Every structure is written in C-alpha cells, then in structure tokens.
Amino acid sequence: MTKLDIFLWIILPYISITIFILGHIYRYNTDQFGWTAKSSEFLEKKRLRFGSTVFHWGIIFVFFGHVAGLLIPKLWFDVLGITDDMYHFGAIWFGGLAGLAVVIGGFFLFLRRVAVKRIVKNSSVSDYVALIMLGIVVLVGFTNTAGYTATGGDFDYRVTIGPWLREILTLQPSQGMVLAMAQAPIGFQLHVSLAFVLFAIWPFTRLVHVFSLPLKYLTRNYVVYRNQKPYHKAKVAQKKEIN
Amino acid sequence: MKQSTTPLWKRLSYFGKSEKLNDQYERSPQDRNSEKVYRRRWQHDKVVRTTHGVNCTGSCSWKVHVKDGIIAWETQQTDYPSTGPDMPEYEPRGCPRGASFSWYTYSPHRIRYPYIRSALLKIWSEALAEQKDPVKAWKNIVETPEKAKRYKAARGKGGFVRTTWEEINTLISSSIIHTIQKEGPDRIFGFSPIPAMSMVSYSSGARFLNLIGGSLLSFYDWYADLPPASPQVWGEQTDVPESSDWYNSSYLLVWGSNLPQTRTPDSHFMVESRYKGTKVVAVAPDYAEYVKFADNWLPVQAGMDAALGMAMTHVILKEYYADKETPYFNDYVKKYTDLPFLITLDQEGEHLRSGKFLRAEKIGMDISNAEWKTVVFDEKSDGFAAPDGTIGHRWEDNKTWNLHMRDTDNQLGDIEPALSLKNHSDEVAEVSFPEFMASNREVYKRKVPVKKVTIDGKEQLVTTVFDLLMANCGVSRGLAGEEEITYEDENAPFTPAWQEKLSGVPAGDVAQIAREFAQNAIDSNGRSMIIMGSGINHWYHSDMIYRTILNLVLLTGCEGVNGGGWAHYVGQEKVRPLEGFQTVAMARDWGIPARLHAGTSFFYFATEQWRYDDQKVDNLISPLTDKATYQHFGDYSSLAARLGWSPSYPQFDKNSTKIAGDKSNEEVVQSVVDQIKSGEMNFAVDDPGDPNNFPKLLFVWRANLIGSSAKGHEYFLKHLLGTHDGTLSEQEAEKNTNEIKWIEEVPEGKLDLLINYDFRMSGTGLYSDIVLPAATWYEKHDLSSTDMHPFVHPFNPAISTPWESRSDWNAFKSLAKKFSEMAETYFPEPVKDVITSPLLHDSKDEIQQAYGTIPDWKYGKFEPVPGVNFPKIQVVERDFPKVYEKFISLGDKVKDQIGAKGISWKADEEYNLLKKLVGTNKRTSHIKGTPSLDTDRQAAETILTLSSTTNGSLAMKAWKALENKTGQSNLTDLVVERSEERLSFNDITTQPRKVLSSPVFSGSETGNRRYSNFTTNIEHMIPFRTLTGRQSFYLDHDIMLEFGEELPTFKPPLQKLTFQSGDRKPEAVENEITLRYLTPHFKWSYHSTYGDTLPMLTLFRGGPHVWLNNHDAESVHIKDNDWIEMYNRNGVVVARAVVSHRIPSGIVYMYHVQDRLINVPGSKITKTRGGTFNSPTRIHIKPTHMIGGYAQLSYGFNYYGPTGNQRDEQVIIRKMEREEVDWLED
C-alpha cells in the first residue's frame, strides 16, 4: 500500500466529499441567485434541444446504473435471483446505451458551447471546467464499459469498487479494499479518482442544479401563497390568540 | 432586527410542509425574502435634483438616485410649473441619451486621476532637476527644439501616467509665468463653449484667464451655430421662442431642423400643435425623422434652400404686396422693418447699383448724429423725414430711441413713411442686381421707381429698400417699361419655376406653401412660424440662406408675435442670468477688460488652414464689383484686426506687458500707434508663422475641441499640435496674400501645452499633454439655462467628487492659488498690460465708422485713431500674486455698473445683499469684506443674485434704464408683478422656477406668457439694435456690397473639388463615387457626448458609420455594413456604410460627432487610424463676417465673427474589402 494508494483511495475521497457537502451548504447560503442551471436556451435553442435532452436522459440512467452497480451489494442481486450474466447483460446493454447517450449528448453540448459565438461570450471559466471534467469522467467511464467490460474484461467492480465505496461512505475504509482498488485496471482507477475531483469542484459550478430539480411542480397546487412572515410563526400567533 | 437564518436552514426547516387552503390554493411555509431583491432594486437613499451640462442645451431637470453612496440611475423630473390651461406642459423633459448619463460616472472612460504624458513628464522632471527652478525648467523645455519636438510628437499616442494636482498646477503655472514673461499673456488661450449649459464651470476657467490676461476663444461662431443673419437683421446674437410657443403657432414650417431627433424633449409641442389644426410643412433633403410629422414635404436639394426662400419671397411679394395691399403686412413692415428707408443708387460704369442708406446729413438736415440717421419719404409732409429710433438716436440719450413713427429732430411730429416710391417717383430707373449661380455670376436689370435728390451738389437717385426688394425678387407691378414676369418663367430670378431648376422642389408646391404661410399670418395676426436648424445653418453662405427665409416671417408680420417668427435652434445660447454670469466669468467685478477672441479667425491661422485655402475671393464677389479688396480671405482678417473690426490675439509681435514701461496711459496709446505706423511693431495676425506669435498654451474645459469641433481636424493635429496627421493637401506653392506673411516652411506643433479638464477621455484628452479629472454633472453646483424653456436649473452634487476629480471651479481655483504663490517670486510688482479690443456692438463704438466704408490707415489714406479706425487700447495693472484672492472674491466694481446690451444700472444693494447671502472671505490677506466666491455654490448664488432675469429688484432697475433710454414710460409694468422675487439656488433646487421679464432679452414672460423673441420690441416700440433701429433687409457696408449681399439673394454652396492639383491624391481605384458630405446631428449622441457610452453604442452599429443612398452604393458595389474609406484633401475617414433609400442620391451623411475613439480601423491611404467626422472638413472664412465698427455689424463675443462652417465639402468613397480592414492592434 503506497502513499499514493492511501491518497487516492482514502484521502482524496474524504477531501472531495467534505468539499462536496460543505461547498454546497456554503454556496446555497451565500449565492442564492447563482444557484442555477444557467440555462442558455435564451441564446440558442436548436442544438440545445437535442444535446440537452439526450444528455440528461442518458445521465439519469447512468446515475441509477451507478447506484445499482456500486451502492447495492452483489449479495442483494443474488438474493433476488439476478445472475451475473443477467446483470452483465443489463449493465452492458442498458448501461452502454445510456453511456452512449451521455457521450453523444455531451459531445453536442460541448460543440455548441465552443462554436456558438453568443454562447462562448456568455460562458464562464467554471462552465468550461465543469463541462470538460464531466466529459472526461464520462468518456473514461464509457470506455471502461464499452471497451473493457463489454469485451469480456474479468474485473468485477461489484466486488471491488462497490464495497470500497460503501466502506468509504460508512466511514470504515479498510486496507483490503484499498489494495483491491490499487489493483483495479487503470481505466477504473482513473474513472473513480477523476470522479472525486469532479465532486470537489461540483459545488462551485452550475452542476448544483442537480439538487434543484423542480419536482415540486408535479404535486403543487396551481396557486401558492406565501406569508409575509413564515407561517409556523403565524400559527404560533394564532394559537396564542386562541389561548 | 434579528439576523435571519441561513437560506439552507430555512429551506430544511420547512421541508415540504405546505398548508392546503382548498382545491387549488395552498400556503407555502416559505418566506418572501426572495422578493426583497426586486424591492431593493428601486430602493434608494436619496434623490438629488440636477441637470445635464450637455451641449444639446435641452436643460432638462433630472432626479438622480443615489444608493449606498453610488449613483444608481436617473429619472425625469415632473414638477415643472404649469404652462397654464389650454397648453401642453413642459414636464416631463429628458431623452434616452440623458437617461444614460450615470453610465459615465463609473465607466472606463472616466478620468479618475490627473494625467500627464510620460514623454513630457520625463523631460519636465529632468529639466526641473537640472534647473532647480520650475519656470526656468519650462523655459528650457520649450526653448530646446529637440525636447519640445519629443513630447509634441507623442501627442495622441498614449503614454499617460498618473500624477498629482500639485505637480500639474506647478507645471502649468510655470508655463503661464514663462509665457507672460517672454511673449505676453495674450498667448494663453482658453476654449470652453456654451456657458448656458453650465455657467459656473464656464466661469471658472474664464475668470482665471481673464484675471491673468489670457484670451478666451468664442465658440458659437466657431461651431457655426451662430446664425450671422441674426446680428445682421436684428442686431441680436440670437433670440428665439421657447419651445412651448410652437404650440401657439397655426402654421409651422420646419426647415433643416430635425426636431424629434435633436430637440427630443421639446418636439411634443410640434406634434401637439397638429392636434389643434396647425399645419406642419417640412423642408429637408432626406426623409428625416421630422418629415413624417409633416403635411407637406419640400425635398430640397442640399444647400439650395436660399433658392426656395427667394421664390417664396417672390410669391408673397407678388400676391400680398403687388397684386393687392395687405393692411396687416403693410403696417408691420413700415413700423418694424427698414423697408421704407431710402437707399441711394450709384452709377458705376454701365450699372446703376444700390448703395448706402440715405442719411440725414446728405440731404442737409441740420441735426445731431446726422450721418447715423437714416431717412424715409414721409407721405404726410410729402418730404423726407428722419424717423426716431435709428442708431443715431440710440447714442444721444434723449429718449428718442423708440419705434414711434415720429421725426423729433426735424419737429415733424407723426409721420407716415412711404413703403414704395411708386406713387411718388420722379422716374423709373433700371437697377442692376447680382445673380450668383453655381457656374457663373451674372447681372440682371430690373425697373425701380426713384426720386431725385441733390447730394453734395450732384443729382442722385434714391429709392426705398422695399422697391429694391421687389425689383430684386422680380415682382412685376405695372411700372413703366417693366417686363411681366410670371411664376412659370424659369429664367428670371427668383420665380418658383426658376428655383425648381436648382432645388428640385416643384414650383407649384412652393407657391402653395408660400401662399398658405402668408394667408395664415393674415388670418392669425402673425402666427406663422419657421423652425430652422443646423441643416441650413452650417453652410458657408448660411447667412444668405437665413436672410431669404427671414424675408418670409418679416414680410408677413410674424416676428415678435407669439406663435410666429423664426425659431432657430442650433447650439442654444441663452444664458438667462446673463449679467451675473458675465460679471463672474469675465471678472467684470474687477473692472479689467477681457481679451475675447473670435474662434474661427483664431483657428484659421493657428492651424495654418489659411495656407491651404482652395477658394478664390474673385469667385465669390458681386459681379457688380470690379475688384475684390483682397485676393486671399486671410487678408480680410488682417484688415479687420487693424481697423478694430474684429478682435485679434495675440495682439502684436511684442509682449503686451513690455510696452507701457513708465509712460502715462495717453503716452502708451500714442506710442502703440506710432510703433505700428512705423513698422517697429506689427499686428501678430500678419505673421502667423513667427514662433513669437504662436498661441502657447490652450486650456480646454467642458469641450471636446479636437475630437468634436475641430473643423479641419487633421490640420489641427499637424500644425497646432505637431503630431501624426492624415491630411493629403499641400499648401499653395507661392504667396498669394498681400497682408499675411507667407513663408515656405509651414510651422508644426505651435502649441506648447494643451490642457484638458474633462470627466471622460475624449478625443481632446487623448491629444492633450495634460488631462485633469473634472467632476461630472452629478458632482458639482452649477446653473443651466436654455432658450427651449424659461426655467433656470441647478446642478447639485449627488455624490462628492470621486477619486481625485475636482469641480471645474475648484480645479481652476487651485491653479489660481498655485499661480499666485509662484507669482510672488516672479512678479513681485504689478505689471502694466496693454490691451487692445475691437469696436464693440451695443456701445458708442458702433457709430465710429460712418457710412460703412473701409477707413484703412495702412496705406496712408487715413490716420489711425484708436477706438475709431484702430483697435481700442487700454492699459491695465495686473497684480499677479493677487489673482487667487480676486478669483475667490467678488470685486466691488459691480456696485456702480452692471448691465447688458447697451444699457446699465447699479447693483449696490444686491452687492451688499450678497455679503449676507454667501458670506465674505475670512482667510484672505489682501482682499477683505467682499462677497466670497470660494465655492461653486457661492458663484452660482452670485450669478442668480446679480441678474435681472432672476432678481426682481434688478429687473426693475433694468426696465427703468430702458425707459430712460427709449422714452417709453410703462416698461417696468412688465416685471412689477414679480419685482420682489429673487430666485435663489435653494428655490430652483426645490422646484424649477420661471425667469422674470428683463430687457436683457427681447421677449416677455409677464403673466405666465410663453416667451417669444422681439415681442417687447413690437409691443412696446423698443427699437432693434440695428442701424435703422428696425429689422434689416438691407445691409450697406462696403464689404457687403463687394460680395453682393446688400439684399437677401441666392448663393449656391461653395464650388469645391475633392483635391487640388499638387495635393497628395491617392491613386484612383475602379469603383469610387464622389458625394456631397453632410454632417447632421445624430440620434444616439449629442456631438460626442453619449456617443461613447455603451447603452448608446448598442443602439446603432457601435462605431463610425456613414449613410448613403442605395443607388449610389450599388453603383460602387457597396452593401450595407461594408467598410468604406471616405476621403478628400483634408483627411480620411474609415467607417461602415449604412445603405438607405432615406438618403437622396448625391449626398452622404456622416452623423455629427463621430470621434476617433471606438472601433476605428486603420486607413489604407494614410496608414494611420481613420479620422473623425471632421477629418474631411476644413473652414472657410467669409469676409462679410469680419465687418466691424458699424452699427449692428460691430463685434461682440459670440455675437459676430466668421463662422466655422463645414457643410460645403465633397468626398470620395470607396469600398474596403474585409481583409483590408486593419485594426492596427499589433
């Protein structure tokens, strides 16, 4: 276990997670008006409609794929009777397809950002950093799926990366898992470590919009009132009045 | 207030708990803090009333909103006093340009610190270290050609470095002291325009320069905004109705004035007048913005307006004077114009031509001032009479200067002047008139009824101005032997058919509009109005264009009537609190005469444009004149200087402080005359190439001289500044002047120091040696007024001056202080300064050269007499160490005399009042107990307190003075209702206040009346300040006759070539087009102001552009937005083409003022950056504008003088391919 291994598989993840959590809190509290997806639809619609749709549907499936592959222990699949072959079929075909969508969609968004003059003029450094970092992570990840797993690579991340990540998240990193990470194929190592770098810059980019998915619109009423004073206080006042 | 919890905490604490109210409504647990940002957007800490010192001079009152110590935005004020029932209101005023001003405050253009060009600073620091004495250091710099050249050639090439006010003031003071010691204070010049737009700021530099003996340059004539026809016709600089009076008109002719575009806040009055039935007729070459409001459009060929004016005059004379008599018109012109006055006719060779006004002296009337009293034929006594009110009466002070039809001198009592001699004639004579066509000048002959008189034993023919005007215009009226001229006669000047050939306007339309104009005047008693503007005013012969148009309002009795008359709005010039302003600005309170110079004459020589003059005098003189006085226009300037007609500074080739010595004043005057006669001393104007006669220092404040008004921009760069330039012209190969000394080697870099005070980096700043940070219009106390409305507006600081900027007042005050401190060493004793000044209008000077001849003493025919045919000479003592204390103290000379326009009164009570109002200086050591002018606020209060338009007690005194002068007894009635009012600075800050009626202006505001010029003249029989005391059709000065301008007539634009032989003409390319070059005012800027702000730049193409016709463009393959190069011998412009069918074929518009600062690529021709809109222009001076010492044609600062006209140019345009556009950025 080299120092580099410790850094990559223990220190970096914790630094990154810390920045990720505290960064979001900080950003949310200090930059309410900057907490946005920074839509550029106003400036360019056509390319955005294709690129963004494909990319976002892809990334949603990729996200759930990662949840399935990493956070859910292999045991659970076994219990449910999902065999390795079935899992791999799903991971390669559905994961690959979703990955392909992300790559294609992302590629179009990238082209749009560097080719459309008015978008270029309105892009900040953080937009480029977020897009490029995300692009690299996605490309490396897609290459792993398409170029390694799909072509019969025998590395099973469900018994290496998955447990390691769960240990990290439950604050119980172990030497064994770190060693397992260190022996993982270089593509997977790259994907994971770069992902943690991405998480570290995440709170400071437009990517924060992930947490502001306007799901509420699905359930809210047509007219929403807000009180000048927050309403629990109003309730307290009401109660006082009754008493 | 409790600190609110963080957004995240709040978000989490209410997570999802929403209270359902009914099926569709719910109450969210979240607060409404997010709304605060919208609420805060328009919250502010204070609102300050101020205005804009911009040279549209719209003088709009603004609310400036300040938030967190930052100027956040401005909005229009809406509290103007009402114009009364049945009238549209003034509020709100302000246009989108004005609303963008606050952008400047914190913009990249803002000058934040004092700057000096590093090339100069380096030389200065070295010289200072070497010489140890700042004055010696400056002397060393300017006297070492290598050093001087080094920093002068760096002008316009960047390299500014920050410095301190202290260091700059020391440097400037050193240069002033050195210049006074070596060449004299009259080599120090100041340029600042239009005091009305910010009087205190104007006064700051002016007061300082006047106290040290520097020369101020005029701007109104230099800008070609002055309509010389106004002094010629009325003896009045310019006086026009306020804009609300347009609404009183029932027929509006709008002529070359783009109201919605250039008079944005006022144009609504024109539109509203249409709703009550006023007809609006537009005269414009292009489909301008105002044309769309018009019922009729007369699309005149650019520059041919005078042909149209003359044809309309012809129609009015024919239909309302010849075919039938119109009582209203007849009555008006007899009382108020010079039409009934008699003119002598002189036989010159084969031609009988009109000459001088017949004077009482010539026909043997034994009365005083008889050579200045003009004569009419009195029908009542069937003889000659000299009516009261002429200039001869004006300076007798015996209460006969009024317009009553009386002849007091000859005890004739009431008289009835004959308008025409038709019924009194001895015979009908044939008089010759000059005709000026584009290609040739001819003479035509017309019949005129005449009387015979005996003058000096010889029989002489006389006729009236009216008869000459009728004949000149070709109006047939059944005289013996007269040929019948009809409207359809296209060869006879000035019929409607004749003008159609020139102007392209259908003859029928001309007759119809003229007829309607006159008929409306009859029906409404004179409510026909002509709004006119710079479209027709910037031509070389603008005065002739104007006089033909003024015919229309004079012949129809519209002038001096509310809703009627001329309404000229070009660079408005109305300083309402006039006397107070003149006192403070010209330092009249200290009683020293100021050196006030005519700007155009100055720049013509200072920039050496006289050497490149492509016009020949002989081409412009009357065909009835054998020989011009001179062959070169510059020589007329020399003549005007030595006869005391025009001012001329520098005065002599000798230092004015080294003439007097110990001699008494009388001896000094005599010695000056003797030295000039002997040739020991010469007028400086005669040798502009002598370094001793160069202007040395030039202060420019509140102005963009180089980037905006430098007609002949490239000559400025080359000769005045001595830096890189883009002229392609070569000077005349040999001398063609008689008086002006010609040398082969043309001087370059004449100016030692160009100092610019401004809040933004303009073209002037970029070429200056020193740029000083001035306060913006939101950072100082000042006053503004306009002729567009009758209010005086204050400037108030919304924030204190940011960074190191200073108000103009404080800037010049600090310079005065430094200068005075240094002067203790260099001028411990008072210095005697010899001041020359021209014969002034509105003083007895104007009756010194009788009969309007040329009493030239230079060649021995006359003796030079100062104040008669030689400039006035005064000797004054200058105590330079006291300049600072005088600057901040109001001198007591004002107690005994204050006034304007030829009348004066006392201001003693007001002076004492001021001591209490503004306080006295506590820390001065020499001058004590006088009202303090320490701050700009005190200066503003002083101006208001000392002016009759803003102080009722002075208005009463002023009207009283005019009562004494005219013998009219009821004039104080005009202001008695407001005699106890005094508009203080606080008053006008609280709410706009209307000014008081005062004889300083010619209209009345009494009873909330709308101001219209000359209404008091007409209603109260107050004479016009002219030769006859009436409105003038006829001008009889020798120079007028020489150029055939005795009567209004048509003169075409100058015949100009784009290049002269010998010029460095670029090789022709395949697709080139030559077009007439016009520079009307732009929609998204006022001159260069606002043109450089981001909000305005985004509104139109964001850089230099020119407009041309689609067919013209197509013929040389130019498409919209292509880059083009536009050039002539004067310089080159690179801009983008705007192709539009709105522009007629044959002309190109480059909107006024496109400076060289933003998005200007390089020129292929000059290899430097493309020019300003003034690069293809230059000035041509007109000799008739230099006449002086003769009634209304006497000099007044910004009143008379050659105009800096620039309309008559032609340019060549060629397309630039995309790849040829070089931004010169490496």
UniProtKB/TrEMBL annotation, chain A:
Superkingdom of the source species: Bacteria
Ligand binding (heme b 1): H56, H191, H209
Alphabetical UniProt keywords: Cell membrane, Electron transport, Heme, Iron, Membrane, Metal-binding, Nitrate assimilation, Oxidoreductase, Transmembrane, Transmembrane helix, Transport
InterPro entries: Heme-iron_electron_transfer, NarG-like_domain, NarG-like_sf, Nitrate_red_gam
Residues that, per the record, bind heme b 2: H66
GO terms under biological process: anaerobic electron transport chain; nitrate assimilation
Record flagged with keyword Nucleus: no
Transmembrane segments: 6-27, 48-72, 92-116, 128-150, 186-205
PANTHER family: NITRATE REDUCTASE PRIVATE CHAPERONE, REDOX ENZYME MATURATION PROTEIN REMP FAMILY, RESPIRATORY NITRATE REDUCTASE 1 GAMMA CHAIN
Protein name, UniProt field: Respiratory nitrate reductase subunit gamma
Gene: narI
UniProtKB/TrEMBL annotation, chain B:
GO cellular component term of the entry, any: plasma membrane
Major localization class: membrane
Any GO BP annotation: nitrate metabolic process
The protein's required cofactors: Mo-bis(molybdopterin guanine dinucleotide); [4Fe-4S] cluster
A GO term for molecular function: metal ion binding
A Pfam entry, by short name: Molybdopterin
Keyword Transmembrane: no
Membrane topology qualifier: Peripheral membrane protein
SMART domains tied to this protein: Molybdop_Fe4S4
The EC number(s) this enzyme carries: 1.7.5.1
4Fe-4S Mo/W bis-MGD-type domain segment(s): 45-109
Catalytic activity: nitrate + a quinol = a quinone + nitrite + H2O
NCBIfam families for this protein: narG
PANTHER family xrefs: RESPIRATORY NITRATE REDUCTASE, RESPIRATORY NITRATE REDUCTASE 2 ALPHA CHAIN
Family: Belongs to the prokaryotic molybdopterin-containing oxidoreductase family.
Official protein name in the record: nitrate reductase (quinone)
Lineage: Bacteria, Bacillati, Bacillota, Bacilli, Bacillales
